[in-house]
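Quick start: what a row looks like.
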Amino acid sequence: MPEIELSVVIIAKNEAHQIVRCIEAAKRVSNDIWVIDSDSSDQTPELVKSAGANYVNHAWKGFAEQKNYGNSLAKSDWILSLDADELLTLNLAQEIRQLDLSKKTKVYAVNRLNHVGETPIYHGNWNPDWQNRLFNKQTHQWNSALAVHETLQLSAHSEVVQLSERLLHYTVQNFESYQQKLNKYAALYRNKNKKQHAVFRSMKRLFSPLFGLIKEFIFKKGFLDGKAGFQLALLHFKYTKNKYKKLQA
């Protein structure tokens, strides 16, 4: 087991079906692993503890707030931030262990390989999917102003370095569950953007969904993923249409 040079922070809720493999993979780079739960009703708490990670339940206050809270508990200043549906491969773990963590302004980004179930998606809107995930908490933290798709706050001195190995991301178990996730995102989008000008909303509602479909399936080569690529493009079309429709309500 590696010495504590970096800590791993994982946010979770009702992740009993996958939290153990996430933790076991994270052990490849750290022995200081923290799972920040938010009132799971399944076996997540017991599984986290039995897997040897630190378990903390923290009332949900948003993605960024959960992650920042976990960072405050971690023993190391260097944080590898993971979601419960992400898996650190052997190759990526080896690459991370060889990094120079002496410069606090560095941020390391990983390119996620997204999956539907066990099927990897290599094209479309999901590729590339660069995420800033390894950083020093003394110089960087998550932006709590964003309700969805939280981002790491960077400064003029931040240096982002892209890693070569990919992080496996088991995004959704199937297309039906992804549709449910997109519906939640559409509601969050409405709450954040409901003050947009009515004319602007109408223009976006008219043109954005179709343009997005063409862009993802044709220009981003989603068609190369076959039926799965088409289903994803169609779901994103419906999501874009739905989120602007909700603004009209």
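That is the whole record. The CA atoms of residues 11 and 36 lie 5 Å apart. The first strand starts at residue 7 and ends at 12.
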